[in-house]
């Protein structure tokens, strides 16, 4: 790691003594994309690295299958690298997600409108060309055989050098009480406690509850109270704040979470995660939690972004916060991280680009927002987005020439392409509303204007991720029921 990167993480000057766990989790990273991260995290002040349960199909989608040799070797390499640097390697396992295939309507968090079962399975099929990916049935609560499969996965992880397991029970439709159990909490206690009792010595267990945010925990008090009473004190619980993506996590909120879950929680910091956005670039880095948070938690885990270059930006910013929460200054930390990653000359350009990106709307909710707000909402979005795109265009060629980290720039450039297609789709809606003399939007029932058809042809030729926001917008058209 370069001297500049080390300085970016410690820009505020103090040590990282306040937070019991300082971690980062990959998000939909492929196994080889984790290579090199232990060294980066050591320099940035972290002591914990979690492999997402999307590490490979065998950690989630096909959880009943053992790791393949290639993935085993990567885990072994990462574990050795982590151990040499004082970092705990954690493997996340999700024995329920395959049954859901991440259906947006059943998950706790609002998903991008083009994300669904076909996209989820298609993603894995692209990762494993030539194979037929068949999701494993979710774990059968009460089955000793199923528990034994999960235990064997943990034993294998321990043998490879993994130091912790995260049992993920999140983002699924809980349904009714499982057969043979009084409620969902009882079933989850059977699973978590049964796994803990059979874990190899030295393997720490973490749990992600189904209701892992305060509002959900409050609403489902019987579930939360059941876990609080039944989980042993040495099993830590992850928590994301009052909501799934909380942008203002405070010590007071953490104290309430501790009272709900019966222990200080590990903060699962979700601001950078973009799986529910179909991997849309999320900029600029969010402000970290409150300065007084650390003493009220069992640690903090940054749930990172799909783009591993941009993930380094978030990691450095949060590393600076963890190093000295009381002395943290956001602009200073972001600018230092940009210098570390892109060089002094490019850093100020990237800062301006990040600021322009603030105009980008939430693409998960955009189609619903357009239907609710009609022309007034659309005019507001375009009024912010068009000048931002001009500013980005003015910076683009210079950034391309000056940003030394080519991975970082390629990720931003892909985001710019996606953003332009979205703006074009919004422009089609604007022109169609004007031509129709309409003020509201509803689901499209026909081919629409020539401009719509021309854009649809461009989208068909673009990559699926570049086109998905514009595709979602083009599901709308001027409403004939309401018009001028």
Q: In summary, what is this structure?
A:
The protein has 484 residues and is of the alpha/beta class. It has 17 helices and ten strands. An eight-stranded parallel barrel has the order 1-2-3-4-5-6-7-8, surrounded by five helices. The chain has a two-stranded antiparallel sheet with strand order 9-10.
SSE topology:
Blueprint lengths: L2 H7 L12 E4 L11 H7 L4 E4 L17 H16 L3 E6 L3 H4 L16 H11 L16 H17 L3 E5 L15 H15 L5 E5 L5 H6 L1 H10 L5 E4 L11 H11 L4 E4 L29 E5 L4 H16 L6 H13 L1 H13 L9 H37 L3 H31 L4 E3 L6 H12 L2 H10 L2 E3 L6
Parallel strand pairs: 1-2, 1-8, 2-3, 3-4, 4-5, 5-6, 6-7, 7-8
Antiparallel strand pairs: 9-10
Keywords:
484 residues, alpha/beta, 8-stranded parallel β-barrel, two-stranded antiparallel sheet, 10 strands, 9% strand, globular
Structure description:
The chain is built from 17 helices and ten strands. With 484 residues, the protein is of the alpha/beta class. An eight-stranded parallel beta barrel has the order 1-2-3-4-5-6-7-8, surrounded by five helices. Strands 9-10 form a two-stranded antiparallel sheet. α10 links the parallel β6 and β7. It is globular. About 1% of the residues have low confidence.
